[in-house]
Specification:
CATH topology of the largest domain in chain B: ABC transporter involved in vitamin B12 uptake, BtuC
Largest sheet of chain B: 2 strands, antiparallel
Distance between the termini of chain A: 19 Å
Radius of gyration of chain B: 32 Å
Strand order of the largest sheet of chain B: 1-2
Number of helices of chain A: 9
Structural class of chain B: mainly alpha
Strand content of chain B: under 5%
Radius of gyration of chain A: 19 Å
Strand content of chain A: 15-25%
Number of helices of chain B: 20
Order of helices and strands of chain A: EEEHEEHHHEHEHEEHHH
Order of helices and strands of chain B: HHHHHHHHHHHHHHHHHEEHHH
Strand order of the largest sheet of chain A: 5-6-7-3-8-9
Number of strands of chain B: 2
Largest sheet of chain A: 6 strands, mixed
Shape of chain A: globular
CATH superfamily of chain A: P-loop containing nucleotide triphosphate hydrolases
Oligomer: heterodimer
CATH superfamily of the largest domain in chain B: ABC transporter involved in vitamin B12 uptake, BtuC
Distance between the termini of chain B: 71 Å
CATH class of chain A: Alpha Beta
Structural class of chain A: alpha/beta
Helix content of chain A: 25-40%
CATH topology of chain A: Rossmann fold
CATH class of the largest domain in chain B: Mainly Alpha
Number of domains of chain A: 1
Bound molecules: adenosine-5'-diphosphate, magnesium ion
Largest interface: A-B, 34 and 27 residues
Number of domains of chain B: 3
Chain lengths: 271, 432
């Protein structure tokens, strides 16, 4: 496994919706082979951060490296689990259909899935304990089952770095237990797993490494370093009112978010 | 009747042209429309249909020809422009997407009408018959059009077949598609292009105003019957084709009838019927389920009443009349008899020949004990776990007893430690 390079580096990332910044100068790096929590209250920009990492949004400034490279060079090694509520579960598809989507790649455009692809998908379903539900319509699943289907789809991508957005939301206690077991198995195999999580109560037990986020980066490091009451207070206590006021100003007055000259060079591939 | 045979014998080559043309059109627009339906882009379809009009008019003004490929080119350009404008406006301004759609739709359509009026007033306009683009006239399809439509429709279907799995993912979860490295921008472009083409294809026979219905309605109807995407698309195609057939038949029998409204009329009827009769999502299914639930509740209450009667006589008296039951508990007349019939059919109660009496069968006793047990353990749960007072819990238990499944029952019993008595000191009847 590539322990020599950090699995994920985020450099001075600033991102906004309709010119209103929701992430300010986020800068951190994550070591490979760890179970990492991105922790912060609701609306703190966790989902936005993942979207920027996965190239689903264009940041206003800053850049992201994965295994020391640009996303496009390492696509096959990175897998993304979107927030469960981000899709319409009434879509006409079965559990197996959805998990097989994990095998869709640029390389099999126009083609049917191979037997190998189907086998990998079935194996992924088996790992999350959903194989008996393979033929079930996704509209008939419980919240916890939907989460497991999403995780299985991600497993089917056979990546080295997994980014999961709130996989514990709407999940019952026993499913939570089995997802955690699965995650630590993945860690044993040398995978890096990054989990977006809003619940401070459980974060300490679940993760080795924590990124504490609230519009800006509050702290990033091993959980022992990060779980200090002043830092937690900073992330979860009173909202950062000044920053959000400035954000409003920028969006109202149409200020540039970064001045052109200061826009830094994008990190080059293996730099 | 004569007209009916004249039409369905398909001996008239013109009838053949028009009918097969319209059917083919219904099929391909419906198939393309499935993705618009699933992506919840019904309004976009409407906007494009309207936005195509100025393109057609301009192309006619420019080339002075009704060549279908040229008109289609104009349609494609203005349809595309509308789509890009909508996206640009909703991304760059604070307007909501539906406001942007409304804006673009009315501006493009306004310009289209203006141009059309202009064409009508110049000499060439009279024989052009471009006004048929508003409401559609399948009868105006000529052989040359049909070949053009055939080729384009075939292309559309081929693209859908080739990119079926990618379009499926794009409709279900575009973020994931992009994160997986699929060329999402190009896929969107292709999907938009075939949508614009499909709409342009139908404009002549259905018309601008109603074209959006042809895109969305077949899928909405088909969705009611199936949970599988491929089946849904086939069904939608079939419904589209059938409506095309009906539309051109009516247009044939009454030559002044526009085709579009009749196709849409037929589609709407099918869609309404589908929404009503759909086995899982339909109104009828819901009504039937509600009725079934009501009968279940009444028959379980009946069993319970019989059990209570037995309990009150210390299980000495086992034969009761209908009057005894109604004295124990009031039931509405209709439901009471339906439930009684159901209990007899299930052999939960056995009639005793003398004097209209009946008794619980062994199975019936078991079932009655189950309902009483659920009622009493739920009361236990409410007092023990939710700390409700014993005199407040009965009404809630009256409802919940009909809902608790065997698994939940097992869980409740375990949590409560298999209590012997309920909060009112009545014994809890366990399985024999
Ligand atoms: N599509 C969007 N358009 C505008 N604002 C958004 C959008 N998505 C999120 N936001 C805003 O950005 C902020 C961060 O949101 P998000 O990243 O979803 O937070 P989290 O995932 O931590 O709950 C919130 O204030 C939210 O209201
Ligand atoms: Mg979120």
């Amino acid at each position: 496994m590539s322990t020599e390079k950090p699995a994920l580096e985020v450099h001075n990332l600033t991102a906004s919706y309709q010119r209103k910044p929701v992430l300010w100068e986020i800068d951190f790096a994550l070591p490979a082979g760890k179970l990492v929590g991105i922790v912060g209250p609701n609306g703190s920009g966790k989902t936005t951060l993942l979207k920027n990492i996965m190239g689903l949004m264009q940041p206003d400034g800053g850049y992201v490296n994965l295994f020391g490279k640009k996303l496009d060079e390492v696509r096959q090694r990175v897998s993304y689990v979107p927030q469960r509520e981000s899709v319409d579960w009434d879509f006409p598809a079965s559990v197996l259909d959805v998990v097989q989507m994990g095998r869709y790649r640029r390389s099999n455009l126009f083609k049917r899935l191979s037997a190998e692809d189907k086998h990998v998908a079935a194996e992924a379903l088996e790992k999350v304990g959903m194989l008996p539900y393979a033929k079930r319509q996704i509209s008939q699943l419980s919240g916890g089952q939907q989460q497991r289907v999403f995780i299985a789809r991600s497993l089917a991508q056979q990546a080295d770095l997994y980014l999961m957005d709130e996989p514990f939301v709407g999940v019952d206690a026993s499913t939570e237990e089995s997802i955690l077991t699965l995650l630590s198995e993945m860690k044993q195999e040398g995978k890096t797993v990054v989990i977006v999580h809003h619940d401070l109560q459980t974060a300490y037990d679940y993760f080795d490494w924590i990124v504490l986020l609230n519009t800006r980066l509050v702290a990033a490091g091993s959980k022992e370093e990060v779980f200090r009451s002043d830092l937690l207070q900073e992330a979860y206590g009173g909202r950062l009112t000044v920053l959000s006021k400035i954000g409003d100003l920028i969006s109202r007055k149409d200020f540039p978010i970064r001045e052109g000259e200061f826009k830094e060079k994008e990190g080059l591939g293996d730099g | 009747m004569d007209k009916f045979f004249a039409f369905f014998s398909f001996t008239d080559p013109n009838v053949r042209l028009v009918t097969f043309g319209t059917m083919f059109l219904g099929l391909s627009t419906a198939a393309v429309g499935s993705f618009a339906f699933l992506r919840k882009r019904s309004l976009i379809g409407d906007a494009i249909a309207h936005a195509i009009l100025p393109g057609i008019a301009l192309s006619f003004l420019f080339f002075q020809s009704k060549n279908p490929f040229l008109l289609m080119g104009g349609a494609l350009v203005s349809g595309w422009l509308a789509m890009v404008s909508i996206e640009y406006i909703s991304n760059k301004s604070k307007l909501k997407p539906d406001t942007a759609i409304g804006l673009v739709l009315s501006v493009f359509f306004g310009v289209g009408i203006l141009l059309l009026t202009h064409i009508q007033h110049t000499g060439i306009g009279n024989q052009a018959g471009l006004d048929q683009f508003l409401f559609g006239k399948a009868a105006a399809i000529v052989k040359q059009d049909l070949y053009a439509y055939g080729i384009i429709a075939f292309l559309l279907l081929a693209v859908i077949l080739l990119l079926f799995k990618e379009f499926k993912l794009l409709s279900f979860n575009p973020d994931f598609a992009q994160a997986s490295g699929l060329p999402v921008q190009s896929l969107r472009f292709v999907l938009s292009t075939i949508t614009v083409l499909a709409i342009a294809l139908g404009i002549q026979s259905v018309g601008v105003v109603l074209m959006a219905a042809l895109i969305i309605t077949p899928s909405a109807a088909a969705r009611a019957w199936t949970e599988r995407l491929s089946v849904m698309m086939l069904l939608a195609g079939g419904i589209g084709a059938f409506s095309g057939l009906v539309g051109s038949y009516i247009s044939f029998t009454a030559p002044n009838m526009p085709t579009g409204p009749w196709i849409v009329m037929c589609l709407s009827c099918i869609a309404l019927a589908s929404l009503f009769f759909s086995p899982r999502r339909g109104v009828l299914a819901k009504l039937l389920q509600q009725r079934k639930n009501r009968i279940k509740i009444v028959s379980e209450n009946l069993l319970k009443a019989l059990y209570h009667l037995q309990e009150q006589s210390d299980f000495q008296n086992r034969h009761f009349t209908e009057g005894d039951i109604l004295e124990q508990r009031s039931f509405s007349q209709g439901d009471f008899h339906t439930a009684l019939k159901k209990l007899k059919k299930e052999f939960w109660i056995m009639p005793i020949t003398e004097k209209n009496r009946f008794q619980l069968s062994e199975k019936g006793v078991e079932e009655a004990r189950r309902v009483v047990r659920l009622h009493r353990i739920w009361e236990m749960y409410l007092t023990e776990r939710m700390r409700l007072k014993a005199d407040h819990i009965h009404p809630n238990a009256e409802t919940i007893e009909h809902i608790i499944t065997p698994e939940i029952e097992e869980q409740l019993l375990e949590e409560l430690g298999y209590p012997k008595k309920d909060p009112h000191e009545s014994p809890i009847p366990y399985k024999a």
